[in-house]
Amino acid sequence: MSGLNVSLGYFITVVALGLSCRALLRRWPRLGFLSEWSASFVLTACLLEVQTVVEVGQWAGGLGADVSVTLLFAVLLIHGVACGDASGNPTLTLGRFLALEATVVPTLLAVAGQFLGAHVALQAALHYWSLELTDMHLIKSLMASSCSTSLQVSVLQGFLTEAVSALALHLAHLGLRRRSALLRVPLIAGLLTFLSQAASGYTSAYMNPSLAYGLTFHCPGFTWTEYATVYWLGPLTGMSTALLLYTGHIPRVFSRNLFYSQKTRFRVPKSGASGEPEDKKKQ
């Protein structure tokens, strides 16, 4: 249990740092895009530790699959509560841009902040593992330079897995966006956990370009182009498809609704050639 206690202390420290950054940013609204940096940092740093538990926890720390699944759901739930509107996910940010809910400059700054947050989280995790606080982290530190890639299938299969997973995620986001956070956050966390477990033998269903950059791009086995095709182009395809299916169009690209007709809410009374209602003519 000592390994689990160290991991819990790590999670608490990372979340506390993220909350501190968000509290400081409230004083400078113009730097609001940095909240995406904070959200990405917290998410990537925590999931790097969950990944450690999954890979070596069972035989180095006595931590079974039930522990890793519980940790994953808890991390996603706490991230959703603590980070609020900041998702740490470039596809969600670009989705708001395509839906005309954000402009170009804030979107670019937010996406840049998300990738920077993931990079800083990876460097922080590498330093944390190098401290070798437990046997689990000692082994992870030795494995860091030759880690196992999350992409366990071909590039085409990986692309389709990420696209379909992202399609489900973004449809859920669009359907729940006006719901209370008490309902929305647990449902999204549960869906993310389910998709991650269902795709564990394929791509792990990150559905998040910056998160995938922090968790698996540094692992050997595939080129950057192949990783980008699966973990960047796949989620972007799923997000665009979800927006198209949900709204009938992509507002930033074209305004015509391809799937759903806009029906009038009220019936217009029939009138004769003179413009008078039929009832008056009969009188």
TrEMBL record:
The keyword NADP does not apply. Keywords: Membrane, Repeat, Transmembrane, Transmembrane helix, Transport. One of its GO terms (cellular component) is cytoplasm. GO terms for molecular function: channel activity. It is found in: Membrane. It is a multi-pass membrane protein. The chain crosses the membrane at residues 6-25, 37-54, 60-83, 104-129, 149-169, 181-207, 227-246. Belongs to the MIP/aquaporin (TC 1.A.8) family. AQP11/AQP12 subfamily. PANTHER family: AQUAPORIN, AQUAPORIN-12A-RELATED. This is Aquaporin. It comes from Muraenolepis orangiensis (Patagonian moray cod).
